[in-house]
Amino acid sequence: MTEAAAPAPESRPPLRIRWALAFVVFAVFFAVNAWLQPSLLTTRVLTSNLTSFLPLVLVAIGQTYVVLAGDIDLTAGAIIALVNVSVVTLIEQAGGSGGAIALGLAAGIALGILCGLLNGLLVAVLRLQAIVTTFATSIVFGGIALWILPQAGGSVPQAYWRGYAGGLGPVKLTVILFLVALGTAILFSRMRWYRHLLAIGGNRLGAFQSGLAVTRQRVISYVLCGLFAALAALCLVGETASADPLLGPSFTLTSISAVVLGGTALAGGRGGVIGSILGALTLGLINNIVFFAKLPYVTQDLVKGLIILAALAGGILGARR
Amino acid sequence: MSLLVAENIRKAFGSTLALDGASLTVEPGEVHGLIGSNGCGKSTLCKIAAGSVGADEGHLRFDGREGFFGTPAAAAAAGIAVFYQELSLIPDLDVAENIALGHEPGRRGMVDGGAIHREGARLLARFGSSGGKGLTPGGLVRDLSADQRQIAEICKILARAPKLVIFDEATSSLDGDQVQIFFEIVRELREAGTGIIFISHRMDELFAICDRITVMRDGRTEATLPVATTDREAVLTLMVGSALATRHRDEAPPRPGAPVLEVAGLSNAVLRDVSFTLHEGEILGLGGLHGQGQSAVLRAIFGADPSSGSVRLGGMPHARRSPAAAIRAGLGYVSGDRGINGVFLDRPILENMAIAHLSKSRAAVFRPRAFVERVAGIVARLNLRFAGYDFPLRTLSGGNQQKVVIARWLATGPRVLLLDDPTKGIDVEAKADLYAIIDELAAEGVAILLHSSEDEELLSTAHRVLVFGSGRIRADLAGEALTPTALYRAAYEVSAA
Q1: Which among B19, B61, B333, B443 would be 20 to 30 A from B302, CA to CA?
Q2: What is the pTM of this model?
């Protein structure tokens, strides 16, 4: 009993790495990928991989905030589709100048925020069921995207995709974007509202009784999810240089898989953004592995599904120890 | 000027009137005790004062400000802090983060982890080593024991430097040393001019720390007494009230039957060494404060929760492996939480009635017509009316749903009925019907174990009452000894005068 005396006041808060397990899983798949594809370890291939994983990383970051608060957002993919077609169409109609591009980027971000705000108001203010409500709004958003642009097509000015493929000196823009996203996520995780988000997801009644602004915080998490989905859509425009109303949907569940793979509890309150980033990267590596293992095309999905299942089970069983 | 004045508060939850004529006045620098029996409205009154539940009528003034608080945040900003009985801790944040929750130190929206940690350590230091291992600022709340969580919740309140603190059962899991430290803290708060509302079922604690005590009964304030000029008996008398002063049943069972259920040393997460014997034709009541092990005993015997110890049914060992085995052995279990523990609302009445029979019968084929013939007598006897066996159970009132559940067990011809607060939320007429049936069944020799959260029902129905406290049997009251006052005395641990 006596050795359990109260700690000295100068002791430091403990360092808790919530993403350790996600990192182990990531490292394993990275090693396998490098073994199947020796060129992975070159700067060029690493950069191009990061470029293709970036949209999912962004969506997963946004999704994490919603899941941490104990909610879920099934609209991420539909927001990507809507922003994607809106931005391309808008830039085309505004004449394709530099000003038009700036207008398109701003409008895309605003649109993502608006979509998130609508979700947040429906779920947190009107208290509709998150899963059903966001499923419904995802159909609405996807429907609007299809209405704006019924078929894949359109094109953005060269300046857009050239700029996206460019960089600052030797460092590619996509690498910078990734690092900025990572830095922002770390900064956010040290902010007061993030602490409150964890509290709300962990014990909503307790958080309410502790005087936290539960409703506002839940709305903000949906807005963040919409914002990050919009950013992902802008990256996809840079990558494909065109618009596709059917591009988004797969991102919804993939982003949720990344969040879970990263160690965030779907019930909320436990986990973090860095884990989700690792989860998103892991899912990208799994795509690579299936491709470089030279499996017949028709079995690739099956193998991919089994690997994701194994990674999830491994992560969860590991955490349960 | 008084710190808090709450007058004539009225609050209904649906058709249940939780408060009607509840009043409370707390002065600055006063420790004000609040006591009353199960469901008398103490917690609801405090939640209204703290803005987490709205009031229907009444008047509130706090620190010169008129009106009710719309949210806990508004009440907290005005200086009210509440120790919630169910606690408001976040399992996946650490102790220091929980203590600082909602007022984290730091600049420009950033959190100063070091400052949070130091403040947490400073507050926890008050409890010294009495908190035990693991109660550190950096320990996750999910890993703490019940007493450690209560200490963390107490520290969370102290961190807010409130003008009024409401301690709702803040000591229920604390040991003696921890309670003493808690009392020191309460005295310091009082010295500093803080108003304190102290809710406890432990009469000794109330008399040790309070300046005044307010007694509540059935949602209204009975009296406020200065501790210096009152005693435990006076408080107990006010709690019991006149309505309960007489007991309706004082006869023993018509013929003392053979032992049917012999329970010895039953223990589990809730229960501590519970032993008793239930006889044929006996109605044995389980009483005491809410949640002291009454339901746990029934669920353990029915095999719904694991337990150690021995249970003999009709002289044979009863293994308690599963409810299915218990049903085959001749037990029936009726819960007040029908939605969770008993019925299938969207399934037909017939299925709801037949389900226990199906579990017991060894027949390969279920013949509905034969079953209906079999239960026709039971249905008539229960005064149970419905449009047809095919209608979903949802179409019946709560009282009739509960009768269907009773019919379900009667169809199995049980030897022992376990009734777990069976009249919860059902209307008065159906209640009377149910109790009449319970009496009849007992007269036919069925042994009945009855838990009721309403002391009056227990006193008017049971031949004998076991009073539970902290998972143990505190008293076994029968015959002359079974009086309302004796029941309360055992529940509130007041030694006989």
Answers
A1: B443
A2: 0.73
